[in-house]
Design goal:
It is a single chain. A hairpin with a 5-residue loop joins strand 2 and strand 3. The strands form two sheets. The protein has a three-stranded antiparallel β-sheet, with no helix packed on it. Strands 2-3 form a two-stranded antiparallel ribbon. The protein is elongated and about 65 Å long. The longest helix is centred in the first third of the chain and has 22 residues. Helix content is 47%, strand content 7%. Helix 2 runs antiparallel to helix 3. The protein is mainly α and 217 residues long.
């Protein structure tokens, strides 16, 4: 009798209640909507990444609480489905909460050219021929003679800089472009591996896809 109770499809422990399923699906859609709001290009609300992150934590905590109503053997499938959904939304636009992947990409591009990423800083004009337009564009100067860049020039943060040694104004998506890369050789191998499979003209997508696949492992 106890075995039948454990395996019966009518046993509440073996199925998710309709109300809980609807609330869980709604929270996942809310999370996806918040993520889209955070990454959508040209969002006029500059604090969207911060506000969206805080709201997402609330929705995530609620979703985790609802997992108590999901049979244990189905929890993994729900988590994977949610990860895929959020991953698809995340790769639909350039990253906005961090520009680290711009440095990853540049280090990979430099290595593809047979050059050590530790040898030159991104603003060094020795490597000007390697610069793709989605990472670098010529800049302009303001009234004080300092370089300036348009907001969201790359779909993510725009960093004003001066090329070396000319001092020409430059805009880049790379944070702290006047300093060498800080990443260790093992990380650089990964950067090279990701960028080796795609043309230099391809933007952030390879690392975004790589992150999604890593999250599913």
């Amino acid at each position: 009798m106890s075995v039948m109770a454990r395996t019966s499809p009518n046993n509440p422990a073996q199925r998710i209640l309709p109300g809980a399923a609807a609330r869980l699906a709604a929270l996942l859609l809310v999370l996806a909507g918040l993520l889209w709001w955070m990454v959508v290009p040209h969002n006029p609300f500059e604090s969207a990444p911060v506000v969206g992150t805080l709201l997402s934590w609330g929705a995530l905590i609620g979703a985790v609480g609802l997992l108590r109503h999901v049979p244990r053997h189905r929890v993994g499938a729900v988590i994977i489905a949610g990860t895929v959904l959020l991953g698809l939304v995340a790769v639909s636009a350039p990253p906005r909460t961090s520009n680290d992947s711009a440095r990853y990409a540049w280090d990979g591009i430099v290595q593809k050219a047979g050059i050590s990423p530790y040898s030159f800083v991104p603003v060094d004009e020795t490597l000007a021929a390697l610069r793709p337009e989605w990472l670098f564009v010529p800049g302009a100067t303001n009234d004080d003679g300092r370089p300036e860049c348009a907001r969201d020039l790359f779909g993510t943060e725009s960093v004003p800089a001066n090329g070396y040694p000319s001092g020409a104004p430059l805009c880049t998506a790379i944070n702290r472009p006047h300093v060498p890369t800080i990443y260790p050789p093992t990380a650089e191998i990964y950067f090279f591996g990701v960028r080796a499979a795609v043309p230099d003209s391809v933007g952030y997508l390879p690392f975004q896809v790589g992150a999604c696949l890593s999250a599913l492992r």
